[in-house]
Amino acid sequence: MADAITVWSLIEDKAGVQVFSREEPGQDLKRFKAQTRVDDPADTILAALQDTKACPEWVHNCVSNKMVEMIDVKTRIYHTTVNAPLWFKHRDFYQQAHVVYEPKERVFTISFQSRPDYAPESNQAVRIHDVEMTWTLKAVGQRETEVTYEVYIDPRLPFKSINHAMIKRSMYKTLQGLAEIVQSPKYKGTTYTEAELEMLSEVE
Questions:
Q1: Which of 19, 122, 134, 152 has the most CB atoms at less than 10 Å from its CB?
Q2: Helices (H) and strands (E) in the chain — how many of each?
Q3: Is this prediction's pTM over 0.70?
Q4: CA 74, 136, 55, 141 torsion-angle sign
């Protein structure tokens, strides 16, 4: 039998988006996952995900998102500021993103790891230290893509219920926003060449 802590519980299922949560070992807050299917190729969706300036248009509560360093073709560092509920200060965090393409499965995976000490904290926002994210884009046909967005984050709000409600809503609204933003003409028709895909493939 699978360990109970590894089992995802479905907590939202509407408008084509499913949101799951599960207990996270050694942590006070839960890990969340959202899934949907988008009627566009994975290349188109990846192009939208990497358009950092557009993030406030579709990522729920996103105030700004900037690439601050490009380490190599697969690895970048981003600074993100998000709006907190009620009277709380904005939250911000630095993350190192790593993009990998798996050609046999036709899957893009973007993994984000927290870099809280990358730059000094600002008086304008509360620095989030504990955050992990993963986007998975899996081709399920010539055009359709299964999108999975997995997050563990501690927004450092005072009550567990407020944290969980904020994250759950953000997961659902963000996937809704992604499905809408990829319809923009600037992403349509994006196709990565074989050479570009090879550069994103792990060869280690």
A1: 19
A2: 4, 10
A3: yes
A4: positive
